[in-house]
Amino acid sequence: VGVNLPTGKRELTREEFLSNVLLSTPALNMQVTQFGQGLNINPGLLWSISGGESAAFGLGVTYHYKGAFTPLKNSGDYDPGDEILATAGMDISVAEATNLSVDVIFTHYGKDVFEGEDVYAPGNKVVGGVQFMKYFGNDRLIVAGRYRSYGKGEAPFAGVLKPTLAKSEPDNFELLGAYALRVSDAFIVTFTAEGRYFQETTAPVSGLRIGGLGVMPEFWLTRSIKLPLRFKVQAGTMKGGESVLGLEAGMGLQFGF
Q1: What is the DSSP string of 28-40?
Q2: Strand, coil or helix: what is 185?
Q3: Strand locations in the chain, DSSP E?
Q4: What tens digit of pLDDT does each residue of 189-231 get?
Q5: Is residue 13 scored above 80 in pLDDT?
Q6: Which tens digits make up the pLDDT trace of 234-248?
Q7: Which of 35, 132, 234, 247 has the fewest CB atoms nearer than 10 Å to its CB?
Q8: What is the spatial distance between Cα 115 and Cα 119, in angstroms, rounded to a whole number?
Q9: Do 21 and 12 contact (CB within 8 A), yes or no?
């Protein structure tokens, strides 16, 4: 069981609210997609099955209760719909120091309620992923692909929720490659390459085709303190031929116990 207490600023201004909506757009792939939430409770059940020395299988189901919050100044409470997640996956050792992982996640979303009225029902989501991982001594190669498919949602029409003409989010596919090079026990650098494709829909941000390169050095300052850095450049096009260019730099401090 997981519990998230309410965090972040409440009752945003219109400008702050619109900025948060933009940050949460999946196509932009922001590292931080939200700066607050209501009370969340997530009970779940997982079941793992051994397939011998070279394979493992897992099944799981989780219920996400999402508490209400006040998104805008002078507005009523917004209660996002609860979620039900069903997962299945397997991990297979295909050769020495080489693993293949496959997983599928199905998510059912409940109805969003604003000031006591049903305002939106997102479509269901299905996510499928494949990951190949191989070790070369202390170095590691990962190649992963993930496809997300969204169903059509429901929006209010004449006081009743009706199916929308477009999906809640565009279907999308992403491919990621990463090579982690251990230079020493205190320094690891990871090189990344990625490509993302988003289906073109009526959504404001869709039809995105973007690729990126990155480098992520990690410095172990002590046995329990790590300093990770991130540098990435991305470029591509969106619906209508608009160009997209993104530069990303980040730094953190990680403590281990």
Answers
A1: G--S---S-B--E
A2: coil
A3: 2-4, 40-42, 44-50, 55-66, 78-79, 83-95, 98-109, 112-114, 117-120, 125-136, 139-150, 152-157, 160-167, 172-184, 187-198, 209-220, 225-237, 243-251, 254-255
A4: 999 999 999 888 776 667 889 999 999 999 999 989 999 999 9
A5: no
A6: 999 988 788 888 899
A7: 247
A8: 9
A9: no
